[in-house]
Amino acid sequence: MADSEPLIQPDRGQDAIAIHLVNKDGFEGWARNLSVPQRAALQGQKFEGGGYQVGIVPDGEGWFAVGGVADPDELSSWCLAKLAEALPAGTYRLADREAGPALHGWLAAQYVFDRYKKADNSVGPRILLTGDAARIDSAIAEAEAVCMVRDLVNTPAEDMGPAALEAQAEALAKAHKAELKVVRGDALEQDYPMIHAVGRAAARKHEPRLIHLTWGKESDPVLAVVGKGVCFDSGGLDVKSSTGMLLMKKDMGGAAHALALGSLIMGAGLPVRLHLLVPAVENAISGNSFRPGDVLKSRKGLTVEIGNTDAEGRLILGDALTRASEEKPDLIIDFATLTGAARVALGPDYPALMTRRDETANALIEAGKAHDDEPWRLPLPEAYVEWLASDIADTNNAHGNSFAGASVAGLFLDKFVGEGIDWAHFDTFAWRPAPKPGRPKGADAYGLRAAWHMLRARYPGT
């Protein structure tokens, strides 16, 4: 995102170009108030009030814009996104309403990932004025969190390895006066043996680590946020195909979501004792890779037979969830790009959500619906636990059939969450295969805003 703060500003009567919002049903009635040349201009642009249409209308020596939306009286997060992408640089205000939730799309639409390719800066920023000044800071923070996920996931693995995730956590800790502890390399073997096993084959510069940030008053409820940080996934000795590896820079998308959520929590001063944990590894191939058939110890004490080295994310999360549970949290939320099965079931736009408690699932789903980031709940069926049985260990890390892959992965994680703890698991894609207004092709956040708004409601403070 371009410098975010100037993109929305308090309306103090500055000169600005008006934006009118219409829908298809109301367009003809609205257009009757226009002059013949103005109607002709819109006709020439084939503007009919359809969703995401943008029109330019001459007005004396100037002009105004018109945007097509589903309902001008009930704006969504993305109503203004196409306008923010398509309009010329300048300062704008909505003609007869406040943007409300659509501020998010105005900001997110101006995101550009330019780390490796110079961006086209000829257009310049589009600034939106709002009379709802109280919304500005929170809208900017939320959009910046989404763009943090995009930046981290878009960055290739060589530049976004475990050390880079640690650096991101260190920057957050410094910004918010949090404490950061990191266990790296062979020091993991004793206390975090599954993280060590998965990451030990990587080159030294990408050695595995457990990143643990703590923040907030010790007297406040403990909230644990955990993110899967597989910075590149070759599949291990159960090696992926070349096409299967092509997007595996995004396998640390769960860590990106966790870091972004942590930044929102700390930035807003949420009244919680935050424990943010990121197990960060590269699942590489070398002479000391962990093998199919190996039995790993875990921090919890359970032994895990390796049915598939490409089911590695759940292993590192197992140790991290065990550590999070030791704080006796009021709630654990984890994010992970965990299974292809979730994408087969739900496609890219809906993160799979699994929880132990119905009320937690309902709160996350309602928050997601209200902020255009809806998760879809999948079950944790006790009947499928037997599919993880092992003849020689306490559990296997993968099941031998093709059924219910997302839920079975969730059931594996459930073994490592402390008894009775409220827990929510997001199996998120972290990638957008095709663009939509405000949401470019590439990395994206799914479930982040749902989790954030649920937490704001659950821990409102004083």
From TrEMBL:
Q: Which residues form the Cytosol aminopeptidase domain?
A: 308-315
Which molecular-function annotations from GO does this UniProt entry contain?
aminopeptidase activity
Q: Tell me where on the tree of life, at the top rank, the source sits.
A: Bacteria
SUPFAM superfamilies from the xrefs? Zn-dependent exopeptidases
Q: Which CDD domains match?
A: Peptidase_M17
- Kindly give the InterPro entries that the UniProt entry links to this protein: Leucine_aapep/pepB (IPR011356), Macro_dom-like (IPR043472), Peptidase_M17_C (IPR000819), Peptidase_M17_N_1 (IPR048816)
Keywords noted in UniProt: Aminopeptidase, Hydrolase, Manganese, Protease
Annotated coiled-coil segments of the chain: none
Q: Which family does it belong to?
A: Belongs to the peptidase M17 family.
Q: Identify this protein by name.
A: Leucyl aminopeptidase family protein
Q: Which organism is it from?
A: Qipengyuania spongiae
